[in-house]
Amino acid sequence: MMLNPADAAFRARLSADLPDDVLRDADARYLEEPRGVYVGQPALLALPRTTEEVSTLIRHANDARVGVVPYGGGTGLVGGQVAPDGPAPLILSLERMNKLRDVYPDENVLVVEAGVILADVQAAADAVDRLFPLSLAAEGSARIGGNLSTNAGGTGVLRYGNSRDLCLGLEAVLPDGQIWNGLTRLRKNNTGYDLRHLLIGAEGTLGVITAAALKLFPKPARTGTALLVVNSPRTALDLLSLAKAQLGEMISAFELIHRQGMEFLSQTLPDVRQPFAEPPEWSVLIDVGLSGELDPSEALETLFAAAHEAGLVTDGLIAQNAAQATDFWNVREMIPEGNRQIGSISSHDISVPLSAIPDFIAKGGEILARIGEFRINCFGHVGDGNLHYNVFPIKGKTRADHDHQKAEIQAAVHDLVQEMGGSFSAEHGVGRMKRADLEHYGDPAKLSAMRAIKSALDPNGIMNPGAVVNV
């Protein structure tokens, strides 16, 4: 589709129908993304306060065939929030749409606008003695509209599901400017196609989410955290099975950590307090949330004893208080920052079936060893099959020394993922970075259907052009 730039004439058209302070030139922070892979071109920025203003912006953009790049908290890692090429777009940030609209504690429902920061959604739930369980490292700046648009996962997927599973209804502006009033609080609603699930995970290519009705949950009466040393990824899975047998759905998180991640932290962030004097080869971070009078420490001690007797764990620490639990989680949450400071050659957000995880890790190392000598930091949400599999240079070398091998490394990892029935993008989305991967690995029937949906809803191709799929 041929698009037009968001030029002075387009700006003048918008200004006639909008308050004076909605439009401005986009400053640097709206043209950058965390990994520094993409840099957006100078663009017009819109900061609406209401859904009606969003509708006006989208309607004008559609009429003028100007591309629109929805912008949440800017924390996405696949370039979905910046447009590095093509005609200058309209960047649409919903940061001013940050109101808590309604809360229904008895229904376990919270209705918020899309610009609310995720940590503020969590706080609003906590204020009515409820839990909104979506949690991720960027929760202090990520916005709920972006979380839904990318179907963010995070650490609680094992118990509570992805963002998709935490949303009952949406309000959104479609590519022609129509407002879809789908902000239902219903748990059952079989009235045809579910546009909610179409927009969630679409990364702003089918419309703009402006508000959401979110599921809340009772807060666990007590929580507990343990860091257990395991011999291998295989025994980590056996430990997960044992934990499920003993604790059922009370397991909130089950994270696999490799020694390499802790060593990177020691090197780059020495102030991060580490639980072990000598980092173990593999460890598992477990969070549990128990109801009633059940004691999480006792439950974790019982699990450790059974796992030790079965030969699944060799050592472990059970947090004795909230501060110690925070220290355990701080190690896990700071691993990506340690990775960033070391500088990966190629980073991969992948998922494979649970039973395939040990073979994937073993085969991945063997395949990469044929390409060259590398350090691998494999960690992540092993409870739901999502691994962050990142490849680094050995000591004394830099990422630049391996630039010529990056494509080969990425192809090797993603080919293995495909062979094992997995996904090359588990939770970060497709954006612009992985569009070629989608074309290469995507099922032809699915791609055809995606293009048909995109063409039907957005015939002028204005919504986040260049992201996810081209028509």
Q: Can you offer a commentary on this structure?
A:
The chain is α+β, with helices and mostly antiparallel strands and 471 residues long. The chain has helices at residues 8-15, 51-64, 118-127, 144-149, 157-160, 195-199, 233-247, 259-268, 296-309, 322-342, 357-371, 406-419, 435-441, 444-457; strands at residues 23-25, 44-46, 68-71, 90-93, 100-104, 109-113, 130-131, 167-173, 179-182, 208-215, 217-218, 222-230, 251-258, 282-290, 313-318, 346-351, 374-381, 386-393. It has a five-stranded antiparallel beta sheet with strand order 5-6-10-8-9. It has a four-stranded mixed beta sheet with strand order 1-2-4-3, with helices on one face. The chain has a four-stranded antiparallel beta sheet with strand order 13-14-12-15, with helices on both faces. Helix 7 (233-247) packs across helix 9 (296-309). It is globular, with a radius of gyration of 23 Å. 49% of the residues are buried.
Biggest sheet details: 5 strands, antiparallel
> Structural class, from helix and strand content?
alpha+beta
- The strands making up the biggest β-sheet line up spatially as 5-6-10-8-9
Beta-strand level of the residues, as a percent range?
15-25%
Q: Can you count the beta strands?
A: 18
As a percent range, the share of helical residues equals 25-40%
Shape: globular
Poorly predicted runs: none
Q: What is the residue-mean pLDDT, rounded to a whole number?
A: 95
Span of the ends, CA to CA: 8 Å
Q: What's the gyration radius in Å?
A: 23 Å
Count of separate DSSP helical elements = 14
Please give the structural blueprint.
Elements: H1 8-15, E1 23-25, E2 44-46, H2 51-64, E3 68-71, E4 90-93, E5 100-104, E6 109-113, H3 118-127, E7 130-131, H4 144-149, H5 157-160, E8 167-173, E9 179-182, H6 195-199, E10 208-215, E11 217-218, E12 222-230, H7 233-247, E13 251-258, H8 259-268, E14 282-290, H9 296-309, E15 313-318, H10 322-342, E16 346-351, H11 357-371, E17 374-381, E18 386-393, H12 406-419, H13 435-441, H14 444-457
Parallel strand pairs: 2-4, 3-4
Antiparallel strand pairs: 1-2, 5-6, 6-10, 7-11, 8-9, 8-10, 12-14, 12-15, 13-14, 16-18, 17-18
Helix pairs in contact: 7-9, 8-10, 11-12
